[in-house]
Amino acid sequence: MATLKATLSCAYFEEDPSTGRVEERPCAEWDFDNSTFTSTVTSEFGLVCEREYLRATYQSIYMLGIFVGAPLNGVMADRFGRLPMVSASSVVYTGIAIGSCFLYSLPLLLAARFLLGVMHPASLQTGYILVMEMAEPRWRSALGVGMFLPWALGTMAWGGFAYLVRAWRWLQLAVSLPCLLFLPALLVLDESPRWLAVAGRQEKALGILKKAAERNRVDLPSDEKILSILKDDQRKEVQEKATHDNFKDRVKEYFETAVILFRTPRLRTITSVMYIDYLVVGLVFFGLSLGGGTLSADPFLYMALSGLVEVPANTVVVPVIARFARRTLSIFFFVVSGAALLALPFMPSGHAWAAVSLAMVGKMSITFTFNILFLFASEVFPTEVRTRGMGTSLMMSRIGAMVAPFVTESMGSVYPWAPSVVFGASSVVAGLATLALPETQGAALPDTISRFEARSRAREVVKDPRVPAGGLEGEDGEQSN
After folding, report:
1. From CA 481, how far away is CA 477, in angstroms rounded?
2. Among 50-59, 62-71, 396-405, which is the least confidently predicted range?
């Protein structure tokens, strides 16, 4: 047992041997049970009694960092490019993760956790978008979903690392050092040609496309034709901005940039629904993770099981999403998760494993939904605002993650059935809201908001029974049918 001197005291009751009276005395030191871990953040910094709230703060501040970093990194990646953000965030993240092992001040450690959360979206989310914009359509499904398999495997590995390394500082170092293996890959990555084209750097985009064609041994059209295609969207953006030549129009333009995701009708609908979906995914996924302690009293086994149930959602979903429509799959798994969780309160007592099985069906289904939504969002938002759209959507999932403990702890302590009902009902509502999204399977990624809206209007006109069966000409001179 380890003893830690107190800096802040709490009280305990002790019988006075001289008077026989039970008196309240302030705590001067604590004994921690180190039979499972030789040292923890709680035991080292004395996060008990008046400081107990800092234990939750240590866990939640990482999510707060992601909440702040998601929209910030989204705007910066749209402005400065995908590759610079991925490179800078990966280097900074690795440095902070390793350096935090040697911080002996709790405020500094909390600050490091917050900064790690801020860097998280730039490395994970922006890196994901870079892969999606570089991949050809037939590989987008497999790459978009398969990229999350290492997350599940890493969660399982945490259980193994923690079993072998019982001191928190050495454990933090053991799981942070592998980040160094990724850094050399940054030297061979290329910028997204899609972003370069929209940003007006068509020559550089052409160079990357030619290099990719050479590696894959495919023939490209002439440079002039490719440059003409790449400059098309940029030319339209310049023409639109040229009309805003006075102060009033400039102020309006800045305002529209701030609310760009709600600027047009179709984009407004997509943004609203994606916000709802991501909020629910974060709420349910992290709520089930926090409420799954009944799986095992062994923390190592629990961590391994938490990752294990996510493996099917990161493997089986790959061929499924390649074959079936994104919107249909999202709705299906939202409803399955909701049905399983809504059934939990009706499970008779004494059937703990049946209840756990339902909870794991709910978690597996919501993990399926998360993977599909990540791919869905990368396809449904135009290139011009894709990173910003996904960044703010991820921000909503972190709000859900921050709300989840209040549902499981505060509400669950009063009404034990309430968390599963809240999570289940939320999943069903999100599934119904997803009906408003367009299908993106096999569709070309839209580059600009104007083209995206024109394409949406073209689809609505084609659905009009007054339009001839042969279709009509879209804004690009292509036939829509």
Report:
1. 13
2. 50-59
Q: Examine the pLDDT at 473 and tell me if it is beyond 50.
A: no
Tell me the average pLDDT across 93-100. 93
Number of Cβ within a 10 Å radius of residue 146: 15
Query: Which residues is 32 bridged to in the sheet?
Result: 2
Question: Which H/E stretch holds residue 328?
Answer: helix 326-343
Whether the Cβ atoms of residue 364 and residue 341 lie closer than 8 Å to each other: no
Q: What is the pLDDT of residue 111?
A: 95
Collapsing DSSP to helix, strand or coil, 262 comes out as: helix
Residue 388 phi, psi (nearest 5): -65, -40
Q: How far is CA 193 from the centre of its chain?
A: 24
What pLDDT is stored for residue 347 in this prediction? 81
Does the pTM surpass 0.85? The reply is no
Q: Nearest 5°: CA angle at 308, between 303 and 312? A: 155
Residue 370 sits at the vertex; the CA angle it makes with 369 and 376, to the nearest 5 degrees, is 85
What are phi and psi for residue 480, nearest 5 degrees? -105, 135
- Cβ atoms of 73 and 125 within 8 Å: the answer is yes
- Judged by DSSP in three states, 457 sits in helix
As a whole number of angstroms, the distance between CA 276 and CA 401 comes to 13
Specify burial of residue 197 (Cβ count, 10 A radius: 0-12, 13-18, 19+): buried
pLDDT per residue over 408-442, tens digit each? 766 766 788 888 899 999 999 999 999 988 887 76
Contacts of 308 (CB under 8 A, 6+ apart): 152, 156
> How far is the CA of 261 from the CAs of 75, 252, 253, in angstroms?
12, 15, 13
- Token couple for 188: 């061979």
Nearest CA-CA partner of 284 in 365, 343, 352: 365
- Please list, in sequence order, all residues whose beta carbon lies within 8 angstroms of the beta carbon of residue 235, skipping any fewer than 6 positions away: none
Of the pLDDT bands very low, low, confident and very high (cuts 50, 70, 90), residue 455 is: low
Report which of 457, 77, 149, 166 is spatially closest to residue 315, judged by C-alpha positions: 149
Q: Are 369 and 330 in contact (CB under 8 A)?
A: yes
How, if at all, do strands 479-480 and 472-473 pair?
A: antiparallel
Distances (CA, A) of 252 to 231, 241, 256, 367: 26, 11, 6, 40
Question: How high does pLDDT run on average in the chain?
Answer: 77
Give the pLDDT band (50/70/90) at residue 1.
Answer: very low
Give dist(CA 146, CA 315) in Å, integer.
7
Q: Give the residue among 322, 410, 475, 398 at the shortest CA–CA distance from 67.
A: 398
In whole angstroms, what separates CA 329 from the centre of its chain? 18
Identity at 176, one-letter amino acid code: S
Residue type, 62: Y
